[in-house]
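Read as amino acids, tokens; as here:

___
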Amino acid sequence: MQDKEIIQLFWYRDQEAVNAARGQYGSYCGSIAMNLLQNREDAEEILNDTFLKAWQSIPPARPDSLKIYLGRITRNLALNRIKYAQADKRDRRLSMFLDELAEAASGDPLPEDEIAAAELTDHLNAFLTALPEDQRDMFLRRYWFGDSIREIAERHHKREGTISVTLHRIRLALSRYLNEKGVGQ
């Protein structure tokens, strides 16, 4: 079933929409949740919450890409779960991702001004689009999907050290790029 057909089922409030979305993107969203949470029960709960949130938000939302829409919901729910579970102490996985990215995008990581957030998003998208495909995949696997260095190395048939160095160089390039655009420090 195509995304547009599934979205139309959501708009008609047809319960089959959730089943179709889960069948199409359940494993994709589940892998995002599992990579971030490292706990099967929590990941399954986040997966269920993802499809509930999709049911509640479509309509009025009409996403262009259901895969990206569901992936974003899953990722946000998983990150919120980590923050909630670690309210009194910092979780190493989340802090590691944020610390690594903080090198590139210093300042307020969540701009309060929606225009600034949209501008930052546009710059980040332009930067990622200009990267070679393998480097873009490494960056997204690490900072969007939460894959470990080992998983990325296996995926790209490279050594872990090579992946770490490549990601470090991408972060430095991103930092320079954002500074040139007046978005960084």
Observations:
- The chain has nine helices and no strands.
- The CA atoms of residues 141 and 147 lie 5 Å apart.
- Confidence is low (pLDDT under 50) at residues 106-113.
- Residues 92-180 form a domain with the Arc Repressor Mutant, subunit A fold (CATH 1.10.10.10).
